[in-house]
Automatic annotation (TrEMBL):
It holds the Pfam family ABM. GO terms for molecular function: monooxygenase activity. The lineage of its organism: Bacteria, Bacillati, Bacillota, Bacilli, Bacillales. It comes from Oceanobacillus piezotolerans. InterPro entries: ABM_dom, Dimeric_a/b-barrel, Heme-degrading_MO. Keywords: Monooxygenase, Oxidoreductase. SUPFAM superfamilies: Dimeric alpha+beta barrel. This is Antibiotic biosynthesis monooxygenase. It comes from the Bacteria. Residues 65-157 form the ABM domain.
Amino acid sequence: MKAYMTKGTVDFLVKLSKKHALDIYIMNNNEGGLAYYEDAKKSIFTTGKDYEIITQNGEMQAEGFVVMNNIPVTDDARAVFEDRFKARRSDVDSMPGFQAFRFLRPLKGNHYVVLTQWNSASDFDNWKNSETFQKAHQNQEVKKPAYYADRPFTTSYQMYVEEENS
């Protein structure tokens, strides 16, 4: 299964999603909109990013809060990074407010994405402040691992819910 993302204005992305018979999730933040969908076929987006879903848990929802950890990995360290990540035990799915998890491998480029979706931003904050989070991240080095091509960064989005006209 593959995952596809593209950026644009929310209005443009909503129009695009209405043209296709797919579950396209529109989300936004203060930088603009992002469309995300999963499918086995080729992307419908003319620009954007394509990923292979390596591991997943839960189902994406039309409402919620999404956090994406963007991790640039050197080409020669991709296998090591994936093995280490897959070997990590995570109980994120047992946390209140958890909706979905995706570990995404880029089909082009070197930015992996670890996507989690929550009912709300406060559910995500509760997880980050939990003992479960501390256990899952206790063995992380203080300095960045050698397989990072650059500094990882996080982006967060609120799912866009179109208001119905009455």
